[in-house]
From TrEMBL:
Predominant location category: membrane
InterPro entries on file: PKD1_2_channel, Polycystin
Any one of the GO CC terms: membrane
One Pfam family hit: PKD_channel
Subcellular location field: Membrane
Residues of the Polycystin cation channel PKD1/PKD2 domain: 30-265
Entry protein name: Polycystin cation channel PKD1/PKD2 domain-containing protein
Membrane-spanning residues: 27-45, 73-95, 136-153, 173-198, 238-259
Origin superkingdom: Eukaryota
Keywords: Membrane, Transmembrane, Transmembrane helix
UniProt xrefs under SUPFAM superfamilies: Voltage-gated potassium channels
Membrane topology qualifier: Multi-pass membrane protein
Amino acid sequence: NFYFSRGGHIWKKIIGRSQHASLFPRWYAMIADLVWLLCILYIVLHEVQKIAAHAKATGIHGIIFRYFKLWNVIDWISVFWGLVLVIFFVVGSAMQDEMNVALRAVGALDPSETEFREMVLEYIAAAERNAGQVRWFRLFLAGYPLVILFRLFKSFHAQPRLSVVTRTMLTSLVDLIHFAIIFFTVFFAFAVSGGLIFGSHTKNFVTLPRALTTCFRIMLGDIDFVELEEVGILEASAWLWLFILCVGLVLLNMILAIIMGKYATAQEQVGRGKPLWEEARQLVQKVQDQRTGKRLKDKVVLEALVRLTLYRSTSFRNF
């Protein structure tokens, strides 16, 4: 990769990429992938059953307005993301086989033969295509744990003490969206200003995306002032002082103030909920009581309530 600055500087960087010749060097290496695939299928089956239940109870209206809530949408995002990963895996396996076939063909030829150069070029082309596909596969694979993280927040939301974080995020979302308009306007202005000042002397401000990334790092305290002062000590100091005061000290702390205010409100709403270990103890005790017959299962109680409701409604109509 080459980076060209406005002042004529050229920076070069060679990025090496690699890929495996075989995705599963041992047969037992695919066990984890099979378990993951079964988990995805279980989520699909569970969500389809919920959709069918809503459709049976309230029709399309229930599916649209009752089923498609935030947490169910996150479940389907995880499913479709997993489907994309499966597609990447299948395509990558085919491209990997193509690369290995080309490599074996090169190894079977003598370097003095006329076809050797053509086969080498064919192998290089296959390797480059495979490397590009592996790069995108790794990017999507890196995003999958973040999707799983949101599914974990769904589980956290069910426990009062753990739901404080999710409640804080949901209640502060509106305020953060409005504040983000101001924040990113100021942040973008400083990034453009930094690009105009330092873009001709440092590669960290050569392009707008690099300038935005560098400003974010400076906001968090990662400052390379020696590199900035190559432009001039006065220009670098003035820009850095203004950026730290406006973004690092004022706007960033306002974000924290918004979140902490909503966090205190969420704690008041939750109140003195039961700790996680207390709920776990009660769950274990509940299972033991159900096994010994001291307590009925929830499914049995629910079915009895449904029958009682139907009986009362029928008796009322007969009356």
